[in-house]
Amino acid sequence: MAREVDTSIEALAELIGSAERVVALTGAGVSVPSGIPDFRTPGVGIWAEVDPMKVATIDAFHRDTKAFWEFYRPRFEMLADKQPNPAHFALAELEQRGRLEAVITQNIDRLHGVAGTRELIEVHGSVATSSCTACGSSWPLAEVDALFEDDGIAICTGCGGKVKPDVILFGELLPVAEIERARELAESADLMLCVGSSLEVFPAAGLPEVTLEAGGRIAILTQSSTPYDREASVRLDGDVAEQLPALVRAVDALAAQ
Ligand code: ZN
What we know:
The chain contains ten helices and nine strands.
């Protein structure tokens, strides 16, 4: 059955205004305006030169920690300098206004947290901290560089164990508590606002379905096509750093009426 899909920011603002529980689900596209390339794009960015399935895996971390960090350390340093963009700030503002319950993100760049989002579920972990794989001691991103020894491996200052970024590597299980919380949020949402994700990678790929099956709606703001485009109540495909701040203004204008 053909159905009209709204493509205006005003329509999305009305949807948010009438919803009781709104949850955002974000992917790499929300961080592109911060200068972080979508690393899954073939032949682009940091994955272009190496096969991440060989170096950015939990097996590689344990088997050849030096090679792992040779790959991961420049990436770490690149991310440490990045700042949130207007899309991140807009989502934090929606939360402050009581219009957004939580942000679920696939991104590991910690920028939602830096922008001020409080209820943040990072389903793939985050570079915000790294932890000792032996004793669990943890360091913030800015302090990890000091842990590297001459051989290029980050070592715990307490017990001498290997330190690993708190991101979910290929071959690692996703964090159970975060996945469970994301499912709960998706199920109870009247509206899931999907931003900058192609909605093709688990677990993000399954969450809009959870919302739809529970009777909620979904809105999609991303430039790539997604498997959910036909089921979206609102579909936007502009620049997230322009459209999300415009959405906040439209929500405010609606509330002022
Ligand atoms: Zn330790």
